[in-house]
Specification:
- The complex is a heterotrimer.
- Chain A is an alpha/beta fold.
- Chain A folds into five domains: 25-82 and 86-125, 3-Layer(aba) Sandwich (Glutaredoxin); 152-361, NADH-ubiquinone oxidoreductase 51kDa subunit (Rossmann fold); 372-458, Ubiquitin-like (UB roll), CATH 3.10.20; 461-549, NADH-ubiquinone oxidoreductase 51kDa subunit, iron-sulphur binding domain (de novo design (two linked rop proteins), Up-down Bundle); 562-616, Alpha-Beta Plaits (2-Layer Sandwich), CATH 3.30.70.20.
- Chain B has helices at residues 19-25, 82-98, 103-111, 133-140, 173-177, 214-224, 235-257, and strands at residues 2-6, 9-13, 49-53, 62-65, 76-78, 147-149, 156-158, 185-188, 191-194, 197-203, 210-213.
- The longest helix of chain B has 23 residues, at 235-257.
- Classes of the chains: A alpha/beta, B alpha+beta, C alpha+beta.
- At the A-C interface, helix 2, strand 11, strand 15, helix 18 and helix 24 of A face helix 2, helix 4, helix 5 and helix 6 of C.
Chain lengths: 617, 258, 152
C-alpha cells in the first residue's frame, strides 16, 4: 500500500495487525549472529521444508519466521513458538521434526529443549519468565527477535511509523527538538552527548543543506548491539532518522555501516527500498510534503571511522583521517555542511519517545541518564548475549542476575566496558550503577555497550597489551602522539608481558600516557592509553609482579609461564594431537611429557585436557 | 578586531585568524613543523600546541593546536606552561625515536633538553615526520602525484604502487617544502630524477641554467595559458634582456631630445 | 584482466555516480568480484571517478577490506575481538598457522587458503569465532579449527 496520507498509515496498520492476528501460530527462528554461528539458518530451512510437506491446518511456511537476535546467545540456536512464548534452546537441525510433531501438532512440550536454570533446576516454558529476560526492559530492542526484519508489515503491525505520522501531522520541528531535549536522551554511541542539544545546534545554523547521518560503525570489539538492531529491526533506525531530519530540516542522509557487517548492509538497504515503495521515505513522505532520503554508505574496515569527522570523510570516499574539531560537525560536517550524526541505538529509541512522550522516558533509568541501554554481554560469563536494561542497574545485577555469574567455578576478576576507550573495573566496583557518569568517574566509561567479563585466568597486563595492539593497528597515523606514542606505549607493555621491563619503564609509560591523552588529535588517541591507565590503577600489583618477580599471576603471558603435565594424565593423546609445535611426547595410556625447549606456551594442551593434568607454573 | 591575552600581554588580532599567526606576529617562538603559508593547516605534528582558557571557564583549560584554532575575543593563551613544554618534549622525544638520523629533529630536541630518545628507536624509522606538507602542496598544485599510504605506524608517503608516479611533473615543490629534507632529487646532464622518475629539463638558451622540467612547463602552459617563449630564458637572463631593452629605450629617448 | 573482467568492471561502475564519493563502494564491489584489487581495475577506477591514482591507492591501502594481492579460494577469518581474545583466539591461530604453514595476512602457495585476522565481527557471545568463506563457526575449540577449515 502506498502511504500518501497520515490516515492511510492508520488504515494500513489495522490491516497489518489483522494479518498478524490471523496467523494463529508462529515459529520464530533466531538468525542473530550467535545463533547463526550455531547453524540456525539450517534449522530455519528444515522447518520450512517439513512444514511444506506436512500441510498442517494452522501453520504454513509463512508462519516460520526468521528474526534478528533474540538475545540469549549462550543458549542458541533459539526457537520461540508464539503465541505462548515457548522457548527452546540449544536446538539442533535434528530436533526440528520432533518440535513440529510434539509442539505444533500435539501441543506438548519437548522437555529436553526447555531452558533449565543451572542453580534452581527449574524448567521454564515462557522465555519472559527466565531471569535472563525478566530483568530486561527492551526499548531500542523492542522488535529485535520478534519480527522478520525483511517484512515492513510486521514492523507496522507493532506500531512502526506511527510515531513518524504523529510527528508529521501534529508537531512542528522545534516541538520535536523540545520533546527529545526534555526526554534527556543522551547519545548511545558512547559519548553520551544530549541528543536534543545536538539537534537544536544543527537546526540553528543557517544553511541550505543539512545532513542526518547514522553511525553504524560499531568498531568496539565485543559490541554487537548496533549490528543486531540494523539486522533485526532496520526500520526503527530509519524512522528515528526521518524524525530527526524533519526536526532539523534535512533532505538527505546516510547510514554508515561498517564493512564487517555485510548482512546489516543488506538489511538496511532492503528496509530503505521497502520504505521507498510505501511512500515512507524519499519525496513527499506520507503525502505531507516533507522529503528526506537515505542511502547506505559502506565502511572500508577501519575502527577510526567510528569517529565522527573520520566517518564523514569516509562517506565522501576518502581515507578515514579525523580532523581537529575546533569547529563541531553539527556546524560544519559532511561536505562542510551542518550535520547530525547519531548512533543506531539512539535513532531506534527516538520513535518510542515521540510516541510515549518525554515524561514517560524520564521515569526510566536515572535523572542524569534516563532510559535504557543495550549491552552485549560477553567473555567469561555464563549467559552471554544481547540485553537491554534500565540505566542505573548495578554491574553486579547485570553480571550475576542476568549474566548468571562466572562459569567453570572461576572467580570474577574484572569487567571491561567502553571498548578500547574504556577500562577494566575490579570486584569492589561491582555495585556501581551503570550510567554515563558513574563508570567514567571510576576510570572506565559506559561506552557503546560492549561488556566483557574476565575471570582470574585473565591477565590485566595482557588485556592492556591486547587493546594497545588493537589501537596501534587502527590508528590512522596522522598525528604524532597517537601514531608514535601508542606504538611506544604498546612496545613497553609487551616488554612487561615478556618480563623484560623495569619500574622506570612503568613510570615512563605513565608520563607518556598523560601526553597522549592531552595532545592527540582525536578521540582514538585521547582515550588510547585508557586500557593501560585503568589496569595500572586497579591491578598495579599484577604489573609489579611481571616487572619485579618476572611472573604472570594469572598464568597467561607466555614468556613467564611454563606448562607441565602432572600424574592425573591418562595418556589420551589429546594434547599431543593439538600441540602446534609437536613439543609433547608420549604413548597411549602413558604419561605425556612436554619438551620445555620446544614448547611455545600457547596453552592448547591446557585447553583440551579433560583431566586437569596440565599445570601452569 | 578582537583582543586576546598571550602570556599575560593583551594583543590585537583579526577575528577568525589562526592563533599561531598571532603568536608568531608577537615574536613568540614556538615550533610548528607541519605549518607552511602555502598550505592549509592540518595539526599533524602537534608541536604548536598551547594552553587556552577564558575568564568564564573558571580555571578550566584545554590544549589546542594553535595553527588551527581561530582566535576569539577574550581568549587567554599561555605558550610555555610546564604542561605545554612536557607535550613538546614528549613529541620531540617520540620523533627522535622514529627519525634518529634527522638533523632537524635532533636540533629541535636539543633545544628542549633531549639529547637521546627515551624510547626504543624504531627499526624501520626514516627521517620523515609525516607532516603531509609534500602531499598537501602537490594537491594544491593540482597533481596529487603522491599520497599517504597505509595506516598507523606503517604509514608512509609514497607514489602509487611504490613506482614512478604517473602524475608527477618534477616541479620539486614537495622536496622544497619538506621541513626535514627527506625527499631526494638530482639534476644531472639535462635530466631530473625524483621519486625514481626521470624528467627532461629545459635549460636557458642564454646561459644554460636549468629552468624547469618539460612536463612542468607543459602543465603550466595548459593550466595557466603561459606562452612557450616564457620558458626559453631563465629569470636572470630575462631580467638582463628586460634591462637591455629598457636601456635601448632610454638611449633612444635621450638621442631624440638632443 | 580479460575482456570479460573489463565488462564486469563496467557493470560495477554503472551502479555508482561517477564521482569521488563512490570510491569506497566501487572498490568494495571490485574486491568482492575479483577477490582482490587488480592494478588495472584501480587505474580504471581513478579514470572513471575522476580521482587521482594516488588517492585510489591511498584508500586501497588504508582500509582493512582491501587486498592488493590475489587471495585464496578459501578465506579463513579468525576474529580478534576482545571476547574472542580472552576465550582463546590465539590458540585457533596457532593451530591454523602450523596446519596451513602461513601466517595471518598470507596465502598458501597453491592459492587454496588465505588466513586473516579480522576485527570484531559482532558474534561475541559465541567466542572464539572463526569465519570460513562467510560461514560462521562459534565456540571453536582449538583442536577443531583445522578440521572445520579442511572439511569445506
Amino acid at each position: 500500500m502506498h502511504i500518501d496520507s497520515i490516515e492511510k498509515l492508520s488504515q494500513w496498520q489495522t490491516e497489518c495487525r489483522a494479518k498478524q492476528t490471523a496467523q494463529k501460530r508462529k515459529v520464530l527462528v533466531c538468525l542473530g549472529p550467535g545463533c547463526l554461528a550455531g547453524g540456525s539458518d539450517e534449522i530455519l530451512e528444515e522447518f520450512k521444508r517439513i512444514i511444506a510437506e506436512k500441510k498442517l491446518a494452522d501453520i504454513t511456511v509463512d508462519s516460520i519466521k526468521k528474526t534478528g537476535c533474540h538475545g540469549f546467545c549462550a543458549r542458541g540456536p533459539l526457537v520461540v513458538i508464539e503465541p505462548e512464548g515457548i522457548f527452546y534452546s540449544k536446538v539442533k537441525k535434528a530436533n526440528v521434526a520432533e518440535i513440529i510433531e510434539t509442539t505444533l501438532e500435539k501441543g506438548e512440550l519437548v522437555e529436553k529443549l526447555l531452558y533449565k536454570d543451572p542453580e534452581s533446576d527449574k524448567k521454564y516454558t515462557d522465555y519472559k519468565e527466565i531471569p535472563f529476560y525478566a530483568r530486561q526492559k527492551r526499548i531500542s530492542l523492542r522488535n529485535v527477535g520478534q519480527i522478520d526484519p525483511d517484512e515492513i508489515e510486521e514492523y507496522v503491525a507493532r506500531g512502526g511509523y506511527a510515531a513518524l505520522a504523529k510527528v508529521l501531522a501534529e508537531m512542528k520541528p522545534q516541538e520535536v527538538i523540545d520533546e527529545v531535549s526534555q526526554s534527556g536522551l543522551r547519545g548511545r554511541g558512547g559519548g553520551g552527548f544530549p541528543t536534543g542539544r545536538k539537534w537544536a545546534t544543527c537546526a540553528k545554523v543557517e544553511a541550505d543543506i543539512r545532513y542526518v547521518l547514522c553511525n553504524g560503525d560499531e568498531g568496539d570489539p565485543g559490541a554487537f548491539m548496533d549490528r543486531c538492531i540494523m539486522e533485526g529491526d532496520p526500520h526503527s533506525v530509519l524512522e528515528g532518522m526521518i524524525i530527526c531530519a524533519y526536526a532539523v530540516g534535512s533532505r538527505e542522509g546516510y547510514v554508515y555501516v561498517r564493512e564487517e557487517y555485510p548482512l546489516a548492509v543488506i538489511n538496511m538497504q532492503k528496509a530503505i527500498d521497502a520504505a521507498h515503495e510505501h511512500g515512507l521515505l524519499g519525496e513527499n513522505i506520507m503525502g505531507t510534503g516533507f522529503s528526506y532520503d537515505i542511502k547506505v554508505s559502506r565502511g572500508g574496515g577501519a575502527f577510526v571511522c567510528g569517529e565522527s569527522s573520520a566517518l564523514m570523510r569516509s562517506v565522501g570516499g576518502e581515507i578515514g583521517e579525523p580532523r581537529a574539531k575546533y569547529v563541531r560537525s553539527v556546524v560544519k560536517g559532511l561536505h562542510d555542511q551542518p550535520t547530525v550524526l547519531n548512533n543506531v541505538e539512539t535513532y531506534a529509541t527516538v520513535p518510542v519517545i515521540m510516541e510515549k512522550g518525554a515524561d514517560w522516558f524520564k521515569k526510566i533509568g536515572t535523572p542524569k541518564s534516563p532510559g535504557t541501554k543495550a549491552f552485549s554481554l560477553a567473555g567469561k560469563v555464563c549467559n552471554t548475549g544481547l540485553i537491554e536494561v534500565p540505566m542505573g542497574i548495578s554491574l553486579r545485577d547485570i553480571i550475576y542476575d542476568i549474566g548468571g555469574g562466572i562459569p567453570d567455578g572461576r572467580e570474577f576478576k574484572a569487567v571491561q566496558t567502553g571498548g578500547p576507550s574504556g577500562g577494566c573495573l575490579p570486584a569492589d566496583k561491582l555495585d556501581l550503577p551503570v550510567d554515563f557518569d558513574s563508570l567514567t568517574e571510576a576510570g572506565s566509561m559506559m561506552g557503546s555497550g560492549g561488556m566483557i567479563v574476565m575471570d582470574d585466568r585473565t591477565c590485566a597486563v595482557d588485556v592492556a597489551r591486547y587493546f594497545l595492539n588493537f589501537l596501534v593497528e587502527e590508528s590512522c597515523g596522522k598525528c604524532v602522539p597517537c601514531r608514535e606514542g601508542l606504538y611506544q606505549l604498546h612496545h613497553l607493555c609487551v616488554k612487561i608481558c615478556e618480563g623484560k621491563a623495569s619500574e622506570d619503564d612503568l613510570a615512563l609509560m605513565e608520563r607518556l600516557s598523560k601526553v597522549i591523552q592531552t595532545a592527540s588529535l582525536c578521540g582514538l588517541g585521547q582515550s588510547g592509553p585508557n586500557p593501560f591507565v585503568s589496569t595500572v590503577r586497579y591491578f598495579r600489583d599484577e604489573y609489579l609482579a611481571h616487572i619485579k618477580d618476572k611472573k604472570c599471576p594469572a598464568g597467561v603471558c607466555r614468556e613467564l609461564i611454563t606448562y607441565t603435565i602432572n600424574d592425573k594424565c591418562t595418556g589420551c593423546l589429546a594434547c599431543i594431537k593439538v600441540c602446534p609445535v609437536d613439543a609433547i611426547t608420549g604413548e597411549k595410556k602413558k604419561l605425556h611429557v612436554i619438551d620445555q625447549d620446544a614448547c611455545t606456551r600457547c596453552g592448547s594442551c591446557y585447553a583440551v585436557c579433560n583431566f586437569d593434568a596440565v599445570d601452569i607454573v | 578586531m578582537v583582543h586576546i591575552t598571550i602570556n599575560g600581554k593583551v594583543v590585537k588580532a583579526t577575528e577568525g585568524e589562526m592563533l599561531l599567526t598571532v603568536i608568531k606576529r608577537e615574536g613568540i617562538d614556538i615550533p610548528a613543523l607541519c605549518h607552511h603559508e602555502a598550505i592549509e593547516p592540518t595539526g599533524n605534528c602537534r608541536l604548536c600546541m598551547v594552553e587556552i582558557t577564558r575568564a568564564e571557564w573558571e580555571g578550566w583549560k584545554k590544549h589546542v593546536t594553535s595553527c588551527l584554532y581561530p582566535v576569539e575575543d577574550g581568549l587567554i593563551v599561555n605558550t610555555h606552561t610546564p604542561e605545554v613544554i612536557e607535550i613538546r618534549k614528549t613529541i620531540l622525544d617520540l620523533q627522535l625515536a622514529n627519525c634518529p638520523n634527522s638533523e632537524v629533529i635532533q636540533k629541535m630536541a636539543e633545544e628542549y633538553g633531549i639529547y637521546k630518545t627515551s624510547y626504543e628507536t624504531v627499526p624501520e624509522g626514516d627521517n620523515c615526520i609525516m607532516c603531509y606538507a609534500c602531499t598537501r602542496i602537490c594537491e594544491v598544485l593540482g597533481k596529487s602525484a603522491i599520497s599517504a599510504v597505509m595506516r598507523g605506524h606503517k604509514k608512509v608517503i609514497a607514489p602509487p604502487f611504490g613506482e614512478e608516479p604517473p602524475d608527477c611533473i618534477g616541479c620539486l615543490a614537495c622536496a622544497q617544502i619538506c621541513p626535514t629534507n627527506v625527499i631526494p632529487w638530482t639534476d644531472k646532464d639535462g635530466t631530473r630524477t625524483i621519486w625514481n622518475k626521470k624528467f627532461d629539463l629545459i635549460t636557458c638558451k642564454e646561459c644554460g641554467k636549468t629552468i624547469i622540467t618539460k612536463d612542468f612547463a607543459d602543465y603550466l602552459m595548459e593550466q595557466r595559458d603561459i606562452p612557450k617563449e616564457y620558458f626559453e630564458l631563465c629569470d636572470d637572463c630575462k631580467r638582463m634582456q628586460t634591462a637591455r631593452k629598457m636601456g635601448e629605450i632610454v638611449t633612444r629617448a635621450q638621442e631624440a631630445t638632443l | 584482466m580479460t575482456q570479460q573482467d573489463m565488462t564486469k568492471l563496467g557493470d560495477i561502475f554503472d551502479h555508482y555516480p561517477a564521482d569521488s564519493g563512490s570510491l569506497i563502494g566501487v572498490l568494495q564491489d571490485i574486491q568482492r568480484e575479483f577477490h582482490y584489487l587488480p592494478r588495472e581495475a584501480m587505474a580504471k577506477t581513478a579514470e572513471v571517478l575522476g580521482v587521482p591514482l594516488s588517492k585510489v591507492y591511498s584508500v586501497a591501502t588504508f582500509y582493512n577490506a582491501f587486498s592488493l594481492t590475489p587471495r585464496g579460494d578459501t578465506i579463513i577469518r579468525v576474529c580478534k575481538g576482545t571476547a574472542c581474545h580472552i576465550k582463546g583466539a590465539d590458540l585457533l591461530l596457532d593451530q591454523l598457522e602450523s596446519g596451513l604453514g602461513i601466517k595471518p595476512g598470507e596465502t598458501t602457495a597453491d592459492l587454496k587458503y588465505t588466513l586473516e585476522v579480522v576485527n570484531c565481527v559482532g558474534a561475541c557471545a559465541m567466542a572464539p569465532v572463526m569465519i570460513v568463506n562467510n560461514k560462521y563457526y562459534g565456540n571453536v575449540a582449538c583442536n577443531r579449527a583445522l578440521k572445520l577449515v579442511k572439511k569445506d
